[in-house]
């Protein structure tokens, strides 16, 4: 990282920045985010170029409406920050812990809403914290506490916090985060499980983290203990597919034998009657699968094969595995909607010994989800050693046990 240099203030640049900020906020609001007026005001006020002086203004204020969570290597898309701040529900005077300092922009937004002396931000890189501290001072937020340390440790001695926000993708929920959260406090964290990622808004109730809200997310992975546990394995006729799996499903993966080419001679495609538009979010379908099936995985490819039906989404598609068989989500295009938006029928492609049976199971799950698309499965984080858990799919983590349960109809 280069030494921080405060940007030079030219009137024309200031005017352009204000116009770009206003346009960015309009786009974010149109996407359904920044519902809190305080969040909108902070986004309109803060000049991102103070935190990234070496990048063109047009790049800094470009909110990626169609690629939520995209990360440009140095900062997170403002659209994602706005969505996560909506989930965090910051109130003036709240004491906030921010894990993943980055450029300091998110900490400044939090300080603008809660108060400059109410925010502690932590990053493991000394170079990053030095730059963020300088940028925060340049913007008048020198009261923000910037700490160099492991994100897993939180900020010992500074809690309890009313709000904790993590702006890096996490595989686990360290106990320190829970211990530093005040009762009734909220933790917002991009959480990876069962092959996909959701920004989950937990509330601490009776020592347990409970969530009824999550949003699509795709952020850089947190570094440190227990955050590199999701594994990947090449599968397919020539290894063109990549299977992403959680460590508690290791035995399922090691015994699937899906790397053997002969497995792909028994392929079945079953179609549901569920129709979706190209712009329909399908994250809740994946979440529904995680709530109703134990062996849920992520499947991706950069090189489609003609020996297997197409994945619904090459970059990340849900799949289930059983008895040396994999079934995954696929889709076929049908006539466009009245406004020209592409539409698809959802189906399941089964490959392996029981391909017909497993693809039928997946189609049944798709049909169940479609009956109540807006129902949100609940996610509850119990201590890792908890034994007597309510019904639901339990996902074991080193520091916690995640229980995912199908959502009730609205």
From TrEMBL:
Q: Chief localization class?
A: cytoplasm
Q: Which GO terms describe its molecular function?
A: protein-L-isoaspartate (D-aspartate) O-methyltransferase activity
What InterPro entries does UniProt report for this protein, alphabetically?
PCMT (IPR000682), SAM-dependent_MTases_sf (IPR029063)
- EC main class here is transferase
A GO BP entry is: methylation
Read off the Pfam families from this record. Answer: PCMT
Q: What is this enzyme's EC? A: 2.1.1.77
Q: Which PANTHER family match?
A: PROTEIN-L-ISOASPARTATE O-METHYLTRANSFERASE (PTHR11579), PROTEIN-L-ISOASPARTATE(D-ASPARTATE) O-METHYLTRANSFERASE (PTHR11579:SF0)
What the record says about family reads: Belongs to the methyltransferase superfamily. L-isoaspartyl/D-aspartyl protein methyltransferase family.
Q: What is this protein called?
A: Protein-L-isoaspartate O-methyltransferase
